[in-house]
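Colleagues,

For the teaching module next term, I've prepared a clean inverse folding example: a structure given as tokens, and then the sequence designed for it. I'd like students to try predicting residues themselves before seeing the answer, so please don't circulate the second half yet.
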């Protein structure tokens, strides 16, 4: 079911990009995914960009804060998990050994948010919806498909997310090693909520949550990425019964995975 009207507690519902060049990122993702950008005023005076496909909200974008830019932190795509109560979830996170990266705050009438960091150092957003429930279109070309934690301590992460979101972990052997799927109790869609992959020696980056976007054609998308100033960090790879994917970097430095799923998705 590509169109969404709500999300269950514990299911990722939104992604947004913090970038050093909003206008450049708008142009890049508009070319790659066909997104239309709409700048929305905020009380802080810095617009937040809503990104749409076929008129439906699919993601967001905004400028990185000056402190992070000064520290040399690269642009990044953020994952937000839908929760019934941000404040309750923050309390669970700190009790489970996590920390608060951004305290709970109201975002006008759109919802309430916070960022937490798990015990392995990966940050993830929390979203308690108000007028904005999250992505309205998923699992088709140019929309959110999957959210994945890459960490060097899968055992600690599994315990943490079970305590915070109630996720149940199922681990299966895949061509590149064990892969864990997290399942949320209230998710009526029949799909796992998110995934987790253990880091290998080749993965020389901090533990983090990554974002997958669905595409219709991997090679065509990679050509568009390169034609618009992006880079291909990992060449296409096929995963049986899952799909074909590649890892790319936008011109500002943010990394995403693009995937052509195998079969129909809910």
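(Answer key — instructors only)
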């Amino acid at each position: 079911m590509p169109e969404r009207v709500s999300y269950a507690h514990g299911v990722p519902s939104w992604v947004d990009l913090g970038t050093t060049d909003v206008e450049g990122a708008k142009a890049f993702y508009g070319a790659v995914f066909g997104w239309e950008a709409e700048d929305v005023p905020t009380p802080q005076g810095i617009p937040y960009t809503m990104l749409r496909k076929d008129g439906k909200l699919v993601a967001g974008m905004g400028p990185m804060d000056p402190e992070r830019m000064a520290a040399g932190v690269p642009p990044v795509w953020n994952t937000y998990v839908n929760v019934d109560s941000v404040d309750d979830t923050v309390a669970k996170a700190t009790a489970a050994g996590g920390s608060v990266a951004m305290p709970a705050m109201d975002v006008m009438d759109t919802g309430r948010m916070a960022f937490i960091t798990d015990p392995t150092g990966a940050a993830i957003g929390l979203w308690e919806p108000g007028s904005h429930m999250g992505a309205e279109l998923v699992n088709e070309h140019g929309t959110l498909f999957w959210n994945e934690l890459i960490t060097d301590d899968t055992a600690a992460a599994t315990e943490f997310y079970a305590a915070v979101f109630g996720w149940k972990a199922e681990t299966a052997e895949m061509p590149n090693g064990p892969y864990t799927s997290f399942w949320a109790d209230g998710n009526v869609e029949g799909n796992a909520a998110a995934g987790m992959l253990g880091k290998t020696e080749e993965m020389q980056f901090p533990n983090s949550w990554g974002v997958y976007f669905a595409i219709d054609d991997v090679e065509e998308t990679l050509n568009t990425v390169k034609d618009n100033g992006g880079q291909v960090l990992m060449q296409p790879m096929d995963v049986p019964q899952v799909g074909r994917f590649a890892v790319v970097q936008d011109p500002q430095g943010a990394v995403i995975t693009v995937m052509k799923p195998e079969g129909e998705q809910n």
